[in-house]
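Lay summary. Proteins are chains of building blocks that fold into shapes, and those shapes determine what they do. In this project we predict the shape from the chain. Here is one chain we studied, written as its sequence of building blocks.
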Amino acid sequence: MLGLRLVVFFGALLLAVPCYAARCGGNFNSFIQSFSQDAAGAGISQDVISAALGGVQQDGGVLAFDRRQRYTFNKTFEQYVATRVGPGRINGGRALLQRHAALLARIEQQYSVPRQILVAIWGLESDFGKGDMGKLPVIRTLATLAHDCRRSDLFQGELLAALKIVQRGDLRLNDLIGAYAGEIGQTQFLPSSYIKYGVDFDGDGRVDLRHSTADVLASTANLLHSSGFKMGASYEEGSANFEAMREWNRAVIYRKTIGYFADRLMGR
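And here is the predicted shape, written in a compact code that computers can read:
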């Protein structure tokens, strides 16, 4: 999943990213000191900066993985969907549609995104929260990639967003665990998307995209709604809703798989 998930992330390179004072490359500790000053200037408390960045080390495995990625996807739709949407996952998704029917109805009413789309994304990203959500410390991962000069500004922005997640109290630092580009939670939000679209739908005062089903599904709906997804309209390839899902993933095959899975969940 990760290789395809990175298609949407690195599509963000087409967008303008802010410039930061911290200069990439060179001594890693010097870079972290400079970035820490940027973070303080952006309103991150010294306590959070010290706890998160004090003693942080580079992760050679993250860099090696990043170097291996080609950010392309060569399977056909039929090949890909056969590996991702089988009877077990469909039946599991249908059971969750029933279990969370009331929650999904409230989310539909507020965000106008159909429940089958949300459950399909949930299943594809993390097998409904039971699968791999990543095992890497997000701060270490993002600090490593921010120091690397290939996409430093982009990852410095994600590192700052991760610090904001900690400062807001959404996740404790030791629970800020994710994948190889810093994706977090059951539907794999990048930290910047976590800050922008995250919703406290269970009302506990924080946005928890690792453990709260309500927050996960509502935040996913909020992202799609903010991108123009409309309830009741087609989400087939070529439709406005299919284009709205580009904010989730720019890969056509992945978006077609979301729609295919959603239709199977509804018995179509």
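What the prediction tells us: The chain has a mean pLDDT of 92.
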